[in-house]
Amino acid sequence: MFGYILKRILLFIPTLLVVSFIVFLLIQLPPGDFLDTMVLRMQQSGTSMDAEAEALLRERYALDQPFLQQYSHWISNIVTEGDFGRSFTWNRPVSELIWSRLGWTFFITISSLLFTWALAFPIAVYSATHQYSFLDYLFSFIGFIGLAVPNFLLALVLMWIGFSVFNVSMGGLFSSEYRDAPWSLAKFLDFLSHLWVPIIVLGTAGTASLIRTMRANLLDELNKPYVEAARAKGLTERHLIWKYPVRVALNPFVSSLATLLPTLISGATIVSVVLSLPTTGPMMLDALLEQDMFLAGSFLLMLSFFTLVSTLVSDILLIIIDPRVNYE
Amino acid sequence: MKTRILIVLIALLSIVVYASTQDTTYNEAPMLAEMVEAGDLPPVEERLPVNPLVQEVKDSIGQYGGTLVSYAPRLPDCDPETCSLLNANIAQFDYDFNIVPDIAESWELSEDGLIFTVTLREGHRWSDGELLTTEDVQFWYDAVVLTEEVFLANTDNGINVNGQIAELEIINDYTFRFIYPERFVRVLDTITDFRPFLPEHYLSQFHAAYNDEADALAQEAGFDFWYEHFMSKLLGGTSADPYFTVRDQNLPVLAAWMYESHNSQEATLFVRNPYYHVVDPEGNQLPYVDYFDRRVETNNEVLKAQIVSGEATHAAFWLAIGDFPLLAENADSNDFIVNLHPDLRASEFGFVFNYTHPDPVLAEIFNDIRFRQAMSHAINRPELQELVFLGQGTPRQPIFDPTTSFYEEGIDQNAIEFDVEIANSLLDEMGLEMGPNDIRLRPDGESLEITFTYATNSPLWNPDLVELVREYWGEVGVDLVLDPVDINLYRERLDANDTDMGTWAIGGSSEVFSRNNSPIRYRPPFHFPTTPLGGLGWYQWYASNGEDGVAPPQEVQDLYVAIDAWMQEPRGTERYAELGTEIMRTNAENLWLIGTIGLMPRPVVLSTSLRNTPTPEDVVSVEFWVWGPHQPEQWYFDN
């Protein structure tokens, strides 16, 4: 097994190289570059830059170099010095910008994942064991709604309710008076009062699909002979269900970790923009629109890296919970 | 009874004593008085210049305290909403848009327009307490203008005369002069956006010519080269970096507020500059308001929701006419007032045909004035106004706004009325016969198709407006082919002379902008030359002194000459008005730039308790840098 994990980790390197190349290429594909965006914005504010200055800046930012040269410069700096380059828009090193945002992104993503699990697991077990009951229908109904409503729409609706009913703006993670305050109990409570919105918004869609998969799997297991046999031997129903079929049906939970993380992260982009969260989403979107390629590229690279890691973790977990799985 | 009289007497006496000391002493904000008391700050008399700038208040003498709050969609910009509160230039606009002193005590341009002399205020101090002297001017000149790595040609228009740089001469500690290679009277228009001084005592450490360790300092701060580090300190941008990324508490400034802190939500807090050089008529040092909190909401809807819920004390730049109903609905319950203020933008949307089109047939059609008249008559502006602009604004051609000193009533109404018959008869007269499918035929027999290239990822090109115009022009037999592209591709096409027609919002159209920057809307290519809307060939001809490009017709050549002469004429002279009128009339008659709805009012949000702020009849315009003339340093909260 350790050999397997090592092999997987070694495979990260070529995968990430390919990803970084594609990412960089995609960012460069649209017409224009960062300077074009900058000039446009200056014009909007009523100033301008003449062609000469534009050319000089383009040279200084090395935007006039061929694509391959720009890419190799960027990637070799990352590999040799851990230097992700400098963001044009923010005029600061990329590494200074991304870490706190990556932190928030993972905090929110993992909170939503835990929320999803905490909600999906008992509901799925209940729905499967009480198939076609009223609550099964009710949960399925709510679940399907959660699946069908786009996340950002849910976020907008919650924000509108927050604004029209409670007259508070739900955007961000803190109320304005706590934004600058040091951590305190009051700030923490304020934080919690904002946190539930993104967690619910991001969690609902995942919850629904997880309930459905888990329910279907468990239903398959419940009709298998070993369940009958256990029941015939006189095990209590609760003991039986939790000990055997649920454990077998747990596989999608763990393997969903691999697919759920990227979904949550990409879903979080739009939701974060709508809710103004301090996560990677809005900054990455901005960077992409402005062709701030080192910033956007670094974000995408880091997110790909974490997706690879989460796939690996879920594979390892699968081996642990299900002895039948063997990758050797 | 006796004691009561005594108390009243003492009270009266103290008022008299207080009032009599007004002439000689200055007052300061309580937060600064505390620091003086604690010995952290010299007394206010020592902090102010010998001759501080006394600013008339708009309504009343204010009270100290409070925090101004504004919102912006992104951190790095020096957008007008933010930077109009942080400016410190040689001069500034007052409420009536007169140019009045700011940092400089006085200035004088010699009769021949060759020598511009500026006098600073004696005893004027940077926000860290160091004196502002002509050494800081010399430093700016040497470290920025004469340093190739830092200076980007042409962007500092107060010393740049057609590519030649003025000489600097220091007279004494407070007086300096620029000597121009040729007559340059326009400097008088640029001084509201001209700040030829930098704090040498602080910034020289980052400059390689002053400090051998500058490169090492830069690398410590995460830059590759010293000049990147140095330029990152130039707040508001002397020239190259217009981005507002300075995060340096130690950087001395001259503005009313200075950088204090920054939080994880990208909000930036500015605090009052204890050395600010402006006092009110009673000697109270400005600004009245202690803090300025600039918050960031990246999502436009959230940003507006914050403003609607009363979180901002002032907002204008990011608001559009479409936001007004929602703002008005929530104003009372959320303690703000919202008014529609006059703005000066000549047209919300304008069209320029490509007069130097590579296809000679199209170029000839576009150059026929009857075609442009017909296209203007074909637009149903009243309907456009109702459907797209909430019925606000004025149907007009994008000619100067009515605040212009040489404005003529009705000059903007040429070919403005909606009349399909006139349009058709003009096109018939041109010989553009109606062909199959009700599309007119070009002289070479092909159908008259015009490609309308526009950017989809910009709010400028309202989809309703684009469709409506297509419909209007289709009515008279001109087939508009819509070609939506990315905004950067759009710019590239314009720049490559690869469009039939250029469209944009026609701002930068006022007298002040035309003089301060350049008259971009009144000569081809009708925008900044890096984004030419139409007639790029003509501009190339003009810029290369006739060597490149396409020779324009006589009236365009005359226009270029008239504008150059106008820019060399000081404001207010007879000749200035004559030339201005000529430029205005030529543009109005020739309809090179066709407008839709202009002078669109701007919704302005102000906190109910804020005083000395603009009243509804005051112009709030990007042309005047939004809050610039409205003296935010004298705003105060009435509690």
Offer a few descriptive terms.
heterodimer, A: 328 residues, mainly alpha, two-stranded antiparallel ribbon, 2 strands, B: 29% helix, 17% strand, globular
Structural description of this entry:
The complex is a heterodimer of chains A (328) and B (639). Chain A has 328 residues and is mainly alpha-helical. Chain A contains 15 helices and 2 strands. The termini of chain A are close together. In chain B, the strands form 10 sheets. Chain B has a 4-stranded mixed sheet, covered by helices on one side. In chain B, a hairpin with a 2-residue loop joins strand 7 and strand 8. At the A-B interface, helix 2, helix 3, strand 2, helix 7 and helix 13 of A face helix 10 and helix 17 of B.
Strand order of the largest sheet of chain B: 2-14-12-11
Rg over alpha carbons of chain A? 24 Å
Q: Report the principal-axis shape of chain B.
A: globular
Mean pLDDT of chain A: 83
Classification by helices and strands of chain A: mainly alpha
List the quaternary state of the chains.
Answer: heterodimer
Helix-strand pattern of chain A:
HHHHEEHHHHHHHHHHH
The helix content of chain B, as a percent range, equals 25-40%
Bulk shape of chain A: globular
According to DSSP, the number of beta strands of chain B is 26
Number of strands of chain A: 2
Return residue spans of chain B where pLDDT drops below 50 for at least 5 consecutive residues.
Answer: 15-22, 236-244
- Look at the helices and sheets of chain B and give the structural class: alpha+beta
- The helix tally of chain B amounts to 21
Question: Largest interface by residue count?
Answer: A-B, 55 and 59 residues
Mean pLDDT rating of chain B: 90
Distance between the termini of chain A: 7 Å
Approximately what portion of the residues of chain B adopt beta-strand conformation? 15-25%
What is Rg of chain B? 27 Å
Helical segment count of chain A: 15
